[in-house]
Design brief:
This protein has 241 residues and is α+β, with helices and mostly antiparallel strands. The protein has 2 domains: 109 residues, Proliferating Cell Nuclear Antigen (Box), CATH 3.70.10; 88 residues, DNA Polymerase III, subunit A, domain 2 (DNA Polymerase III, Chain A, domain 2). The chain has 4 helices and 18 strands. The chain has a 9-stranded antiparallel sheet. Helix 1 packs antiparallel against helix 2. It starts with a strand and ends in an 8-residue tail after the last strand.
Length: 241
C-alpha cells in the first residue's frame, strides 16, 4: 500500500475532528479511497469520514485496514506545512509516513489491533431536513452553549429554531429565506458537548445539512469537493420541566 496526498490538510483536519470522539480507529483503504467509521465509547455519537480516490495524486493499494491511534497520527500530521505533500506506506505492522517539502521527513507509526466491529452508518428515516449556512449554525450552537448543556432543534410552521433553556435561555430562528427547510413540525433535544465537537467539521464547508425527527437521532452531513464527514447523535429524551 502506497498513497500520496498533495493536500495533507484534508486528512489532518478530519483526524483532528474524529479524535475528539474516539482514540483508536480502523482506517479502511480500498478502490473507493480512504474511510473511517467509528462510534464514541459512550455509544452516543457516530462519525463517518470518506476521502475519495480522486483526492490522492498516487494510489497504489489493494484492500487494507490500518489500526491507528489517532492522537499519535494527529501529532505527525500537524508537522505538515502548507506546501507539504504526504506519502503513506504500509510496511508489515508499521505505517511509514513521509512528509515531502523542502526536505523529506519520515516517521513510522506502529499499527495496532483495534477491537471494534466493522460499523456502518445506520440507515435512518427523518421527517425533517435543513440545509443551512455553516457559519449560522456554528454561531447558534455557541449561543446555546453559553446558557445550557443541551439544545432543541425545532420545526414549527416552516421555521427552524435552535433553542436552549435553563435558568437562562438562547434562541435562533431561521425561515426559508435563511435556510432550505423541508420538514414536518417536530422537536428533538441534543447534547451541546457533542454538537460543539461536530461544529469543527462544519467549519470545513460553507453548508451543513441537518436531518432529524421528533425525539429522534440527528444526522449531520458535511461535504466538500474532496471530503465527506457525517455524524449521528442520539437524542436526549427527558421530561420537560
Amino acid at each position: 500500500m502506497l498513497v500520496k496526498l498533495e493536500d495533507p490538510a484534508l486528512l489532518s483536519k478530519a483526524v483532528d475532528i474524529i479524535s475528539e470522539l474516539v482514540t483508536e480507529v480502523r482506517i479502511k483503504i480500498g478502490e473507493f479511497g480512504m474511510s473511517i467509521t467509528a462510534m464514541d465509547p459512550a455509544n452516543v455519537a457516530m462519525v463517518s469520514f470518506r476521502l475519495p480516490k480522486s483526492a490522492f495524486s498516487q494510489f497504489e493499494t489493494g484492500k487494507e485496514v490500518l489500526g491507528i491511534n489517532l492522537d499519535s497520527l494527529k501529532k505527525i500530521l500537524k508537522r505538515c506545512g502548507s506546501g507539504s505533500s504526504l506519502v503513506l506506506e504500509k510496511k508489515e505492522n508499521l505505517l511509514s509516513i513521509e512528509i515531502q517539502d523542502k526536505i523529506k521527513r519520515g516517521f513510522t507509526l506502529g499499527l495496532i489491533d483495534v477491537e471494534s466491529e466493522d460499523k456502518e452508518m445506520p440507515n435512518l428515516e427523518f421527517s425533517s431536513r435543513v440545509d443551512m449556512d455553516s457559519g449560522d449554525l456554528i454561531a447558534s450552537i455557541e449561543d446555546c452553549a453559553v446558557v445550557a448543556d443541551a439544545c432543541s432543534f425545532i420545526i414549527e410552521d416552516g421555521k427552524f429554531i435552535i433553542e436552549a433553556k435553563g435558568i437562562n435561555s438562547a434562541k435562533s430562528e431561521f425561515s426559508g429565506d435563511e435556510a432550505k427547510i423541508e420538514a414536518e413540525n417536530c422537536k428533538a433535544k441534543y447534547s451541546l458537548e457533542y454538537l460543539q465537537k461536530f461544529m469543527k467539521g462544519s467549519k470545513l464547508s460553507e453548508k451543513t445539512t441537518l436531518k432529524f425527527a421528533n425525539d429522534h437521532p440527528l444526522r449531520m452531513d458535511i461535504k466538500t469537493e474532496h471530503l465527506e464527514l457525517n455524524f449521528i447523535l442520539a437524542p436526549r429524551v427527558e421530561t420537560e420541566d
